[in-house]
Amino acid sequence: MKNLSFSLALIFLVCACNSSDKKTDKNSLAVNYVNQNFSEGKEIYNDFCAQCHMPNGKGMPKVIPPLAKSDFLIKNRLESIKAIKYGLSGEITVNGELYNSVMAAQGLSNKEIADVMNYISNNWGNINTVLATEKEVQNIER
Questions:
Q1: Is 40-138 a CATH 1.10.760.10 domain?
Q2: pTM (2 decimals)?
Q3: Which residue of 63, 80, 84, 92 shows the fewest CB atoms closer than 10 Å?
Q4: What pLDDT, on a 0 to 100 scale, did the predictor assign at position 67?
């Protein structure tokens, strides 16, 4: 009986230690995310996107959808990346407003698309802790 009690105590201790390690890992991931440098994405945005979506990401009412606080951008990750990669035409609804304009493909590399996606989805009130990668963008087809 004494050995059983000792074994149960040991199992509890191991589980408790593993549990706290997982919390530390999650916290360190959050710190790594918070410390991300989105400057490359910002530069791409300023060169290719700001002319239409505006430097503040607010777009143009009824013409160009906003990226700032954009429900579409966050809820439709695949479609958002696809729009940056291949362009977009047709109706979309952003923050309850209907938009029907054309966005041309900009000829960006997969890395540039991931960088700009990470910048716009973590700016102007948007938060997306799952960062886009070059590999993810590469795997997206029309």
A1: yes
A2: 0.76
A3: 63
A4: 98
